[in-house]
Amino acid sequence: MVTISVTKIRSTPLKNLAQMGMDLKVSMTGELFIGDQPLTPAELQTLISNFTSTKALASSGGKLAKPAYTAATKALKDGIVLFAPYIDEIAKGDIVILALTPLPTTERKDFASLILAGALAVGMISKKGMTGQFFVDCKSYGPKVGYFAIICEGGVMPLGVTLSRTGQLKIPAGCTMNIFTSSTSMKRKKFSNLTPGVAYYVYYVLTYGADTVGFMGTPLEVICSN
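Below the sequence we write its predicted structure tokens.
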């Protein structure tokens, strides 16, 4: 049975450790992860903050700052490891559930297969920007996974608009709605030069590599900044 790999967590490169902790904190807000968790979001954030602050001091403060950094590194890794049995108990080897977290497993996740099988982006959020602008983001699905975004102005995607598994967006003749896309692979998207005060419906699509394109899920409604 596939489980979270404690060995891989402990061998995580230090440059990736804080981001793993942040992604874990976000993923633990998912509806599947219920009951008492090993650490509260605040406790996990404290470990992350201690790690990042002591890392910065160690970079500039020399040997005197190194013991605190070493201790903070161990504390953060130990804290993340606490989530392994908690997640394993919920997932029971289900790779789709395991893929909802950023933690490495005992088996390499086949993200392309998961996406083609119907995996969707989750945890979409929005943030206001300048006039005619907004930002959107979602939870991390996994390493090397890309994020394609489509927004529809004034309403949900009209019937007949389709996205092929090769990434081709088809808009039928007669469609009068404005539809925009962001083809960058980054999770965080910025949309500008939009109509202030108008509702936009944001669809995230998971991708993997050059030839794996997922599905449009439930859109996020965002009111564009005035």
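The first helix runs from residue 6 to 10.
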